[in-house]
Fold this sequence. Notes:
Layout: E1 2-4, H1 11-22, E2 39-44, H2 49-62, E3 69-76, H3 80-84, E4 91-95, H4 102-112, E5 117-120, E6 125-127, H5 132-136, E7 146-151, E8 161-165, H6 166-172, H7 181-192, E9 197-207, H8 210-213, H9 219-226, H10 228-232, H11 237-254
Parallel strand pairs: 2-3, 2-5, 3-4, 7-9
Antiparallel strand pairs: 1-4, 5-8, 6-9, 7-8
Helix pairs in contact: 7-11
Amino acid sequence: DVNTYPSALTAAQVTHLFRSWSGSAVGAGSTSARDGSVISVLVPTRGRPKGLQRAVDSLWGKATHPENVEILARYDTDDLASWKKRPANVIAIRGKPLGYQGGTYCNEMAAKATGTFLLPFNDDGVMKTQGWDEIIESHDPGLLQVLSFAHNDPRPGTDPWPCIPKRWFDICGHLSLDARWDTWLQEVAWAVGEGCLVDEPRVVIFHDRHDITGSPRDKTYDNRYTDPHFWTSFDSPENQATRGEDVRRIREAMGAA
Length: 257
């Protein structure tokens, strides 16, 4: 169940949404600034229509070329209140509720994304950097690197806020098989070897989560801790083996196997 909901768009945004929907190249006369190159932002969401709108506004508002940024949001079919308030111009996807499994939701969105880069995002995240899209696209997607953006979690050992080339997803068949896509991508990048995890401190994201900023708790936050699968999934034998296979595939694609 996939829909887009245009409202008052610029000509460039209309062109971009058509490209996103059809998967086809942009024809002559396109206003695309970089030959059709697109960044796909993937946002699992539940119960946070205001937070999602804030995230969307920050992403398009801070982009130098918003017409080259597509935003996908994955809703649960039982979250009708949020669905009815979905932001205009977002590629909205509905699916079966799976609990706190943002990695699986991102995989669903990535399969529909048209971008050269994939940026998993949170519905309580806010982009702070003007021109963040140009910074991402200054990197070579052929290098199969995990870009690690700066964020506001002060706790030691916190994971990166990652961005990957779409080709990474195509090679592995997924971003992550666990809700903690950041940790998953970090561990795979570490195992691939030096130069695979790249710090990119010029891009700064504010994560307005209760345990980081003291923002009000909500059911989405609480359900993170009541879902038993959340506590066992990451280090299951199956997922450890899958991360090992991800490492093998990325190394092979890089010519390092």
